[in-house]
Design goal:
The structure is a single chain. The protein has two domains: about 210 residues, MFS general substrate transporter like domains (Growth Hormone, Chain: A), CATH 1.20.1250; about 160 residues, Up-down Bundle (Growth Hormone, Chain: A). By secondary structure, the protein is mainly alpha-helical. The chain is globular. About 50% of the residues are buried. The protein is built from 16 helices and no strands. Helix content is about 75%, strand content about 0%.
């Protein structure tokens, strides 16, 4: 990857484009909160899989297998898809395509009734949505430099993350108040056949569809970049290998950042993946309390991401990431020795305060490193490296929880992954601060 390609990605910071770009994250939050985390995944593993034959694998195990297969596809395809979008000037087109496929996979979950025979349809749709949403995120993240300047990139990234969290708040509250809590929800929806959960998959699809439109209208398509990279699909892998060699030769610290960020991003993902489990099994929160905590957590994370984004433009992303990881490890350590719901609320929210800044600054760190015109390829590698180590935090959580026969002790595993990521980041050189006049 030559650091000075022939065509640079245009750099602007127009409020309308920033708002349109952030609204995509606002819309995507419905898929992440409703389908991936709080509603559909538990419905699939608990209700749909409840009638499993004796001796068969659990619903959670089947879901983990399906998502692992999806992760393999992402790891193999994401860099090439990003590279081809850059080369052909199809970044916005790719965003539209993968967003649409994510939306369709979400809507399709409406047909997954709470009978075991529908489990396979649910697993396929969940795995497909995981692949499509990750590919959409590659193009979305690559747009960051298009709608920001060197002086505003941290703030703009923080706005995007904050919009996602705030959108998640609205969707989660609406789902809880209008469909989950009442015996008879909006439009007369009841729990029969899992309808009150299935209809939320459609709500998530519609929400995502509506709010993904502005970015496709307001943000221009990039011009084609490297004509030499505009080759057939399988030949794209040869181009990728060549460009990776160039990247290692000319920008080795970028490679090290991809590896370090993969580690701590896996720890960040584990905070969300196991937070609800710990809230119920260790700290005594009810299912309803967990959803309310999720709303509060999104508020805190949004505030943290937005504030840190403003500060980052002055101090750089590396310091923000390291401080955030330190805060996360400290809060996790306190939670390890805490008991009861009150302390969980206090230190759980403190934990969430640092998640947003770490996520947002990790994205801007790579965006600052990316050679102009190759953002899509680098964010494809960003997705790949993240998937490559995605076993770390779940494995260590399970190891410590199993060794001590306590879910609480799994916190040690998550904290160790976050700490390892911080240590790996320490020797990585910070991105060169570009002139604010560019």
């Amino acid at each position: 990857m030559n650091p000075t390609p022939t065509t640079a990605t245009p750099r602007t910071s127009k409020p309308g484009q920033v708002a349109a770009w952030a609204l995509w994250d606002w819309g995507a939050s419905a898929y992440n909160t409703i389908v991936v985390t709080f509603v559909i995944a538990p419905y699939l593993t608990e209700d749909v899989a409840a009638g499993a034959p004796a001796g068969s694998l659990s619903g959670a195990t089947w879901l983990s297998i399906a998502l692992a297969a999806a992760g393999l596809l992402i790891a193999l395809l994401a860099p090439v898809i990003g590279q081809r979008a850059d080369a052909g000037g199809r970044r916005k087109l790719n965003l539209a395509l993968w967003s649409a496929l994510t939306i369709l996979s979400s809507a399709g979950l409406f047909f997954v009734a709470d009978e075991y025979s529908y489990l396979w349809l649910g697993l396929v749709l969940m795995a497909a949505g995981s692949v499509f949403s990750e590919f959409a995120a590659v193009s979305y993240n690559a747009m960051l430099r298009q709608i920001s300047t060197p002086a505003t990139i941290g703030k703009v990234s923080g706005i995007g993350w904050a919009a996602g969290y705030v959108g998640g708040i609205g969707v989660l509250l609406g789902a809880y108040l209008l469909f989950i809590q009442p015996d008879i929800g909006l439009f007369g929806v009841t729990a029969d056949g899992g309808l009150k959960y299935r209809v939320l998959a459609v709500v998530a699809a519609v929400w995502f569809a509506v709010w993904s439109i502005p970015v496709l209208v307001a943000v221009p398509e990039i011009p084609p970049t490297d004509r030499a990279a505009r080759v057939g699909f399988f030949a794209s892998y040869r181009v990728l290998v060549r460009q990776l060699r160039d990247l290692y030769a000319h920008s080795r610290h970028t490679v090290w950042f991809l590896l370090a960020s993969a580690i701590f991003r896996d720890g960040l993902a584990a905070v969300f993946a196991f937070g609800a489990v710990l809230a119920r099994s260790v700290y005594g929160l009810s299912a309803g309390d967990v959803i309310i905590f999720g709303v509060a957590a999104n508020v805190v994370a949004a505030a943290g991401a937005f504030t840190a984004g403003i500060i980052e433009d002055r101090v750089g992303p590396k310091l923000i990431i390291l401080v955030s990881l330190g805060g996360l490890v400290a809060a996790a350590t306190v939670l390890l020795f805490s008991h009861g719901s009150t302390l969980f609320w206090i230190f759980g929210l403190i934990l969430c305060l640092w998640v947003g800044p770490a996520q947002s600054s990790s994205r801007t760190f790579l965006a600052r490193l990316a050679p102009p015109g190759h953002e899509g390829q680098l964010f494809g590698l960003y997705a790949t490296t993240g998937r490559a180590v995605s076993f770390l935090a779940p494995s260590l959580f399970g190891l410590f929880a199993g060794l001590f026969a306590s879910d609480r002790m799994g916190i040690i595993g998550i904290a160790l992954v976050l700490l390892a990521g911080a240590v790996a980041l320490l020797p990585v050189r910070s991105p060169v601060r570009e002139s604010a006049t560019l």
